[in-house]
Recover the amino acids of this structure.
């Protein structure tokens, strides 16, 4: 399976990295990137590993306690939908 990033997922990902570089350190940002890579590798190898959400067909994987990755499995790809900051108001989450 190949991985497809939505525009929202890509924007969220870069915003998280920018925040970490500004507020923390290069190492913290690098650790986040490595954590994302590890979670995506798990999803590719076992797409149904992570639980379904209340949104039809969408699964969630906790990257870190602060960030959840929402994704959807299709016939031959995995679509990364959003990287969501878990401290945000959940009613604002649009998938």
């Amino acid at each position: 399976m190949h991985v497809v990033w939505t525009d929202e997922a890509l924007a969220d990902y870069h915003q998280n990295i920018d925040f970490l570089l500004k507020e923390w350190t290069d190492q913290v940002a690098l650790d986040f990137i490595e954590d994302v890579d590890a979670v995506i590798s798990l999803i590719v190898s076992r797409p149904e590993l992570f639980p379904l959400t209340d949104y039809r067909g969408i699964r969630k994987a906790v990257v870190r306690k602060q960030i959840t990755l929402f994704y959807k499995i299709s016939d031959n790809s995995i679509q990364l939908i959003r990287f969501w900051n878990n401290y945000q108001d959940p009613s604002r989450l649009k998938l």
In short: Residues 65 and 86 are 7 Å apart (CA to CA). The chain has one domain: 2-87. The first strand starts at residue 2 and ends at 5.
